[in-house]
Fold these 2 entries.
Entry 1:
Amino acid sequence: MKALVKRHPQVGLWMEDVPMPDVGVNDVLIRVDRTGICGTDVHIYSWDEWAQKTIPVPMVVGHEFVGEIVEVGSNVIDFRIGDLVSGEGHVVCGRCRNCLAGRRHLCAHTMGVGVNRQGAFAEYVALPMTNVWVHDPNIDRDVASVFDPLGNAVHTALSFPLIGEDVLITGAGPIGCMATAVAQYAGARYVVTTDVNPWRLALAKKMGATRVVDVRTESLRGVMDELDMKEGFDVGLEMSGNADAFRSMLETMCHGGKVAMLGIPAKGMAIDWNLVVFNMLNIKGIYGREMYETWYKMTVMVQGGLDVNSVITHRYDCDDFESGFKTMMSGESGKVILKW
Ligand code: NAD
Ligand code: ZN
């Protein structure tokens, strides 16, 4: 089968012919239809320090996908050939304390699809049945293909109650833009989304931000005055991984404000801990999606009218993956989809 492979420990990816994946008794085999390019895939393409430390070569990359089941293992009874599915990209151990307690998103031994085990940028991918989510057959397939990052946005945005709250989202990347739409859908009063990239701020505006802020030219304080926000933001969603963005969030939260942190800082970052202590902030780290409460919530929100279609800005054939990665790296895109 055709697959996009990290073949050599250097910049790039290679479209190759590789053997079909093995299908174990507890696995399903999926014919991949579309895939989304994630920031993680870009790190692997660019072969940065993180990728060099993390990715065993060769590796079929990719984890955001939608496709149809074409084969099931002998233990699999509740998935059928033809089901439209995506995969949860974290394969958990099932045996650690958190897994046994049903808190699988907190597993101590998570393996990443397309990171630590063979991925989904391929004609076929095999996954344990415990990692398969069956879609409403009427769902838009492009949206279904990005359920993994939509899940990051939903997991983060729904970490704290949002009805009537003023929400600050730092970072208008694809996930920050989707979180903007989710926060509006979930009943926030104001959603203020920041970035340093005008193209992405325009996308956040299109996806429902009350106000977008280019922090290079505008102050958050000024925007708070404009909106007559007297005490600061109630909820902060950090989606940039940028230290300045995080610091400015801590400075503009209300007393007792709640912060969910999804963005991954490239290196250690110092903060003013007095802001956390004296403003009595509550900071929560987010990794991945809750299995499977997040998947349930995003499914019913999309069925109920949550519209994230605008985040999908580019579509390419998988053979033209170089254009897809180039578009992602340009910063002038939302989600980029490859058709298999
Ligand atoms: P992205 O890199 O496309 O978006 C980040 C955005 O932050 C960019 O648009 C960038 O211009 C913006 N930014 C940079 N400096 C800023 C500043 N000072 N203020 C405001 N914005 C600034 O990433 P994404 O795919 O949307 O993902 C968002 C973040 O979440 C990334 O850090 C990513 O690594 C991380 N992530 C975490 C998980 C997890 O499970 N914790 C999963 C997926 C992604
Ligand atoms: Zn576990």
Note: The chain has a mean pLDDT of 97.
Entry 2:
Amino acid sequence: MIPPIARRFVAGESVPAALDHARAANEDGVAVILNLLGEHYDDPADARADADAYLDLLDDVADSGLDACVSVKPSQIGMDVSPDLFEEHYREIVARADELDAFVWCDMEDADTTDATLDAFESIAADYPWSVGQCVQSNLRRTADDLDRLVDVPGKIRLVKGAYDEPSSIAYTDKADVDEAYRDDLTFLFERRDRGIAVGSHDPEMISLADRLAREHGADYEVQMLMGVREDAQRDLAAQGVDVYQYAPYGDKWLSYFYRRVRERKENVTFALRAVLGR
Ligand code: FAD
């Protein structure tokens, strides 16, 4: 069972719990991106099992009528076995979403997998332009070129700062440089696209920039934030009419995800300690 302390960041262990969470978020005007926790499977059977779980989840989401979509991790559906297996599963999941009028995001993991992930996205988006979106990371030096390549590809693009430690030869490692790259990438997307832009950030500065760029260029966009992080801001933005999606992980592999969230910010450590101490 997930302890109360972790429930801030994880929607539950089961699909019904995740759907209940999505229902509550929808009542606040916030849509949900459901992510089954799991990554780095080197056994094809594990990758197949999670691909199947996503196929079932898409059916459940469609039956529920909730405002929810899903997000998969490449290494969860086969990338660590082979890029071909990943692409086969990714395509199958998006094809099912397309039949159901649903939507699939693909997260971006470490830089060794960027090429294979983008190749798969480009090919799948050509066949299912309304049903798929891909995450890209502004901390990678290559991302400006990748956006140039992706800007006319159908499907959505989620821009994030990047969560993986990469060497300075391929990534900006200074926060100010990452922020500058994010501003540049966001500006490029709004200059060149009129839809399909997702701002995957909690940073108030980047969210204001997106609002300004959207007005300037008349483009549609959405804001995506994590469950448990700035949820007041999520509700406020939704009340102002912004399309807000909350990324909500669920499943029994919640422990390492929870530790990552707690480690990344001082105030989350304080929150965790308070919960443990009962204050
Ligand atoms: P930061 O510069 O880290 O923070 C800016 C401000 O946001 C802070 O000052 C604070 O006010 C607030 N804030 C940020 N984080 C927290 C927190 N944990 N608790 C409380 N306040 C906080 N990364 C990947 O590499 N691949 C992915 O596929 C991916 N998918 C993502 C999907 C979504 C929907 C989101 C929101 C993030 C995703 N990320 C992904 C993570 C991302 O790369 C960043 O590591 C993470 O979002 C922190 O960067 P930030 O833009 O929020 O801003």
Note: The chain is about 50% helix and 15% strand.
